[in-house]
Amino acid sequence: MSNGTSRRGFLKGAALAAGALGVSRIPGVNLLGRAEAAPGSEPPAVFILNLIGGYNALFGSADSFVGTGAFGVTSTNIKQVGTSRLFVDRSTLGTLSTTTLGKMASIGVDHGITSHPTARQELLFEGTTSRLVKMSASLPGTAAVRCVVIGGLMPVGTHRAMNGVSLQQVRDLSTTIAVLGGATAANAPARGLAADGIAAAEAMSKRTLDVNPVSGKSLIESYPASSAQLREATVAFNYTDLAAAYGVTAGTGGSLPTDVRNTTMQIMGAELMIRAGANLVIANQSGWDSHGDDNGSLVRNKLTGDGTMAALKVFTDRTLAMTDRNVVTVIMGDFSRSLPGSNHQSNLTATVIGKYVKLGTTGRVTSDVGLPSGSPGIQGFWAYLAAVLGAPNAPFGTNPHALVL
Amino acid sequence: MRSIFLIASLGLTACVGNITGDDDDDTQEPVVCEQARTYVGYGNKTLETERATIEPGSDRLRLKPYAALAAEYRAALGLSAFDTSMYAATFGRPPARWYEEPRASANTIYAAFALAYAGCTQHTASDPLYAQAPNASLADTICRDQARAFWHRDASDAEVSACVTYAVDQTNPADPPAKRWAYSCAAVLSASGFLAY
Description:
Order of helices and strands of chain A: HEEEHEHEEHEEHHHHHEHHEEEEEH
Strand order of the largest sheet of chain B: 1-2-3
Structural class of chain A: alpha/beta
Strand content of chain A: 5-15%
Number of helices of chain B: 7
Largest sheet of chain A: 8 strands, mixed
Radius of gyration of chain B: 22 Å
Shape of chain A: globular
Strand content of chain B: 5-15%
Oligomer: heterodimer
Number of domains of chain B: 2
Number of strands of chain B: 3
Shape of chain B: elongated
Mean pLDDT of chain B: 86
Number of domains of chain A: 2
Strand order of the largest sheet of chain A: 8-7-9-1-10-13-4-14
Largest sheet of chain B: 3 strands, antiparallel
């Protein structure tokens, strides 16, 4: 700022705010007891790691390729999870904790689509309705920012708000922390006054926004979310501890980074947003259209090389250990990769991890990456996610995957 | 109201309807341009088939890009320097030589308000105009003046009313007048009239 106050300054060194890591009070969620542990017993949240381009079935159906050696799969670089039928790639998913692997399922999605734009659209939309917003609106919670895309890459399409829930982008964690009452710059506005001021700005914008319902959509949805977030109870974070858990270190000058600029920051940011009351967080990662990756090395290296697997291990360890939340982790992409050539397969084997996920697979593919005849499609996939999240009233219909505890 | 009834030939396209300088007139006939050419796309589908007919001047709002904000705040508030870099990541500053269409979020709205408040604090600190606490009459004048300066148009009575209510009734009476005016100034600067074009 021109008065010399630096945003970096307030993040320097020590904790962002006093208080234990975690949420002293999660806005808008009812903390229910666990006497009858089942989906729906704890406030749910889902984190989706969306690999733009594709998600190779070698990760969640590794044994399918042992016989042919496709994608570089051998009998020694796969890992059977317990005694189940689920085999994963040893160097990637296989590095997750034993506890995490025991709460994992591969879910088959027979969508029949081989076009990137169509697959992305159909996976995230039910007609013109955003599945992301619909899922978030279906889950318990009243936090102002419940449905979040973390990082700079937005998902395709126009995700319209439903029942007061809109998809909100978070690109810098320090702003969220400041909005929720964490440490702020000395000249920052008071939260309550800022909430009223933003509401006044919204009122002053009404005439303009009324005649710009499409082009003004992000403003229309963001004014109320912003003022509502400022009216929520303060959330205590210990950003230093959170960063340390994910191996995020201070840069030049001793400041911890808050800019969501890589996958580690996306995944760490997802945990922060979930602790802040979000019930759906999606992180999009580009560069997964892995044509020609015949030995699977490109996608294996991509998943490990940029820290994605390490961050996922931390995230799943920490979220599965939350006794008062039901956090589900999803890894998905446009489709699996076909053979030969690692091109576009017309189905997907997604990975789902959560405390009410029953170890197993409905996504085991054949050696040529085919799913069993009659495998459910996209709606069934979302119905399954709703089931393991304990969403009331089956918002995506009946769950066809019998992998719920 | 000055209206011009058009049956004009503009190149190959004819348009029918009222073009008026008054945006508030809801009774005017929307301008409709007859397509003189069609374009066939994939699937033998004409590209203009699903083109929406909307009111002239509507749905063309665009947010100012991050790169423009510092100069915009400077010009609006008459400051010699203003640094927006603390919120660069929140706004999603694109890499050099790249452009990304800006999109608002709850965080960018907060960031805009926080930036505006910081700038307005400087703006109101030494101006004697802001030495008197907000009251309905003074707030009406200041809100109108600020809207004209920040939005480059006159505010409607409803917009002024929202500003006045905030300045008089919702800012903290215990705060110094200049601080209260800084908050109301920040609200005007956080409206779409300033953040978008």
